[in-house]
């Protein structure tokens, strides 16, 4: 058992190593520190507990021999620093050695507990892409709370036997009190509808889509973000075959009660493949977990400049720097910019990549939708830019 100043759970890296006396002093002062459990001859840790009393948090992870987090626990300090609330438990069941921790198809079970004495159990045998079996149950105080341990008072490995008996095994879907919930990763049945001329969508009439140039993705990783928001390389990326992909804007006629009818852009998309998209799913960034989404919520890229862009992830930083210089009138790079119906396109020149900017309806978070063919290949990448689209209507 060793002590470290910090811990990055996904990268399995810590901060400065601490002596036991230093760790004890940090515990007494409420400063953060990590306890790392290791086995002789094994490279990966068995488990880690991250303690931060001033922040009121204790987080713990268990790892397998491949460094994947098999279990996680979140505890929160309550009741005037006397008790810890068991806030969340998560167990992943990797079907083989090749399945990545972030694989959306990895089976798992999550439990979210409330101080009121209830817990929501979510079994996802098909991972994030599959439906979940869920139930709300009453929880005894002994399963909900634990006394705050002293520095030497922790028993055993963190998150050992993380799921208590009352969680149970995967139930029969007909079992009383259980309900089937559709995947939170899946999106509207047919996002392409907003690009089909003549389609009637509540409040909108779809016109012919408008070409907006193309996007070169030589690295095979597409990034979607706002280059003016300062978040750096986009946290939302999509793996696509290296190539150049046409970009289109969904041009629609809007019937507005107070403003009358007008035309605008409702979405933008990249055409990655020729096959139809039979299913749409939300693109996720590092650490995004659909179990944390509530009704009407989504993950996406953030913007405080009412804009976004498609670009090659490998050239994102260079393209962002080039964009900043090109915007100055009279700069040598200014002629690399060209207007499009949704914003601007930037020619990356020798970078072998370009950046296509589009306007959104305002600031906020915008989901990125990935359309997949019947064989599971990525064939579309789309962003809804302005309207609440009732694509099921």
Radius of gyration, CA atoms, in whole angstroms: 25 Å
Unreliable spans are none
Structural class: mainly beta
Biggest sheet layout: 12 strands, antiparallel
* Average of pLDDT: 91
Give a count of the beta strands, DSSP E runs of length 2 or more. 30
User: What shape does the CA trace take?
Assistant: globular
Contiguous helical run count: 3
Report the sheet-strand fraction. Answer: 35-45%
- How far do the termini sit from each other? 58 Å
Level of helix content? under 10%
Describe the structure.
There is one protein chain. The protein is mainly beta and 393 residues long. The protein has helices spanning 20-29, 141-144, 316-326; strands at residues 2-4, 7-8, 13-14, 17-18, 33-37, 47-52, 57-63, 69-78, 83-92, 108-113, 118-124, 132-138, 145-147, 179-181, 200-201, 204-206, 210-217, 221-225, 236-239, 243-256, 260-271, 279-282, 301-303, 307-312, 337-340, 343-347, 354-359, 364-366, 369-372, 378-384. Strands 1, 4, 5, 6, 7, 8, 9, 10, 11, 12, 13 and 14 form a twelve-stranded antiparallel sheet that branches. Strands 15, 16, 17, 20, 21, 22, 29 and 30 form an eight-stranded antiparallel sheet that branches. A hairpin with a 5-residue loop joins strand 7 (57-63) and strand 8 (69-78).
């Amino acid at each position: 058992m060793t002590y470290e100043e910090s811990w990055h759970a996904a990268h399995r890296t810590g901060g400065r190593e601490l002596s036991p006396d230093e760790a004890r002093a940090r515990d007494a002062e409420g400063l953060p520190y990590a306890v790392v459990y290791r086995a002789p001859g094994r490279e990966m840790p068995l488990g880690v507990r991250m303690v931060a009393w001033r922040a009121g948090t204790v987080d713990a992870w268990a790892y397998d021999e491949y460094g994947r987090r098999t279990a996680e626990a979140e505890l929160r300090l309550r009741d005037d620093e006397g008790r810890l609330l068991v806030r969340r438990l998560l167990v992943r069941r990797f079907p083989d050695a090749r399945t990545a921790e972030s694989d959306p198809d990895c089976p798992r079970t999550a439990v979210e507990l409330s101080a009121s004495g209830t817990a929501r159990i979510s079994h996802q045998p098909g991972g994030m892409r599959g439906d979940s079996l869920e139930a709300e149950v009453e929880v005894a105080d002994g399963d909900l709370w634990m006394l705050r341990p002293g520095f030497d008072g922790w028993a055993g490995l963190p998150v050992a036997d993380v799921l208590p008996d009352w969680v149970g095994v995967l139930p029969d879907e007909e079992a009383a009190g259980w309900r089937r919930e559709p995947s939170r990763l899946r999106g509207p049945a047919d996002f392409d509808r907003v690009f089909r001329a003549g389609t009637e969508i509540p409040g909108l009439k779809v016109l012919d889509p408008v070409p907006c140039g193309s996007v070169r993705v030589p690295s095979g990783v597409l990034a979607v973000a706002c280059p003016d928001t300062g978040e750096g390389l986009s946290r939302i990326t999509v793996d696509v075959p290296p190539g150049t992909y046409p970009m289109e804007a969904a041009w629609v006629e809007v019937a507005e009660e107070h403003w009358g009818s007008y035309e605008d852009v409702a979405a933008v998309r990249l055409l990655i493949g020729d096959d139809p998209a039979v299913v749409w799913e939300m693109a996720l960034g590092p650490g995004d977990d659909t179990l944390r989404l509530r009704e009407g919520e989504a993950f996406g890229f953030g913007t405080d400049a009412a804009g976004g862009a498609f670009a090659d992830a490998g050239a994102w930083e260079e393209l962002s720097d080039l964009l900043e210089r090109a915007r100055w009138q009279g700069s040598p790079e200014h002629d690399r910019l060209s207007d499009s119906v949704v914003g601007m396109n930037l020619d990356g020149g020798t970078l072998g990549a370009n950046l296509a900017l589009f306007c959104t309806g305002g600031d906020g978070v915008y989901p990125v939708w990935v359309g997949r063919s019947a064989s599971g290949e990525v064939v579309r990448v789309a962003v809804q830019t302005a309207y609440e689209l009732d694509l099921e209507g």
